[in-house]
């Protein structure tokens, strides 16, 4: 285990097994109708890459950049930046994929923005959910794991840009994370 990690919440094996199950639920729900999967950069890159390989439905992959945790763990103002995805939003059924649902602001803003841009349906999928931290009332359709209120890294999630490459989800040692969360 990485020396900056206090404890592992979900191992690589657990994550992979859970993703296969969630992808099966997604395939069952969306069947043969084309789907646009939009990953939220950068945190969801690892998750979305593994997830789509288990989804059995015709899909396109696009990305949006949404950053609120600019310097560490403090929640700031949300900035959205859609990468060009011509024809992939208007009239489409969208699966919005993020690493973690915390206050819910990111998913709520993105859902509103996508509907404004003409998306027909917007469904949410997150690897992790911290229900105790919710500020905005939002439901996502697919959740990997519900977790306690702790700052986690690994499997795409960063602290100040680092730890995304860890294959597991771990809690960062408290003395390293300045968790003045909004
Ligand atoms: P929300 O808008 O729901 O408050 O926050 C969602 C975003 O905050 C996630 O996409 C992620 O970038 C970041 N975030 C929230 N909680 C954590 C956490 O425990 N660890 C890390 N690394 N990022 C988090
Ligand atoms: Mg994020
Ligand atoms: Mg981050």
Automatic annotation (TrEMBL):
Top-level EC class: transferase
GO cellular component, one term: cytosol
InterPro entries tied to this protein: HGPRT, Hxn_phspho_trans, PRTase-like, PRTase_dom
Gene3D superfamilies registered for this protein in UniProt: 3.40.50.2020
GO molecular function: guanine phosphoribosyltransferase activity; hypoxanthine phosphoribosyltransferase activity; magnesium ion binding; nucleotide binding
Cofactor entry: Mg(2+)
Catalytic activity: GMP + diphosphate = guanine + 5-phospho-alpha-D-ribose 1-diphosphate; IMP + diphosphate = hypoxanthine + 5-phospho-alpha-D-ribose 1-diphosphate
Location of the protein in the cell: Cytoplasm
Pathway(s): Purine metabolism; IMP biosynthesis via salvage pathway; IMP from hypoxanthine: step 1/1
GO biological process terms on file: GMP salvage; guanine salvage; hypoxanthine metabolic process; IMP salvage; purine ribonucleoside salvage
Residues annotated as domain Phosphoribosyltransferase: 14-159
Enzyme Commission number(s): 2.4.2.8
Pfam families: Pribosyltran (PF00156)
Signal sequence, renumbered to the chain: none
Keywords: Cytoplasm, Glycosyltransferase, Magnesium, Metal-binding, Nucleotide-binding, Purine salvage, Transferase
Stated family: Belongs to the purine/pyrimidine phosphoribosyltransferase family.
Cited PANTHER family: HYPOXANTHINE PHOSPHORIBOSYLTRANSFERASE, HYPOXANTHINE-GUANINE PHOSPHORIBOSYLTRANSFERASE
Name of the featured protein: Hypoxanthine phosphoribosyltransferase
Organism: Rohdeia mirabilis
């Amino acid at each position: 285990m990485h020396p900056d990690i206090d404890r592992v919440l979900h191992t690589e094996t657990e994550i992979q097994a859970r993703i296969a199950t969630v992808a099966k639920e997604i395939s069952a729900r969306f069947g043969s109708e084309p789907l646009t999967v939009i990953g939220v950069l950068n945190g969801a890159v690892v998750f979305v890459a593994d997830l789509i390989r288990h989804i059995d439905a015709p899909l396109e992959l696009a990305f949006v950049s949404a950053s609120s945790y600019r310097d560490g763990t403090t929640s700031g103002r949300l900035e959205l930046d859609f990468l060009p995805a011509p024809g992939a939003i208007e009239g489409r059924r969208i699966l919005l994929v993020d690493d973690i649902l915390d206050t819910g602001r990111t998913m709520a803003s993105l859902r509103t923005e996508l509907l404004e841009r003409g998306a027909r349906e917007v469904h949410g999928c997150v690897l992790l959910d911290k229900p105790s931290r919710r500020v905005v009332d939002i439901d996502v359709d697919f959740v990997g794991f519900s977790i306690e209120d702790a700052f986690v890294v690994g499997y795409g999630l960063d602290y100040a840009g680092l730890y995304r490459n860890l294959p597991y989800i771990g809690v960062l040692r408290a003395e390293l994370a300045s968790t003045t969360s909004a």
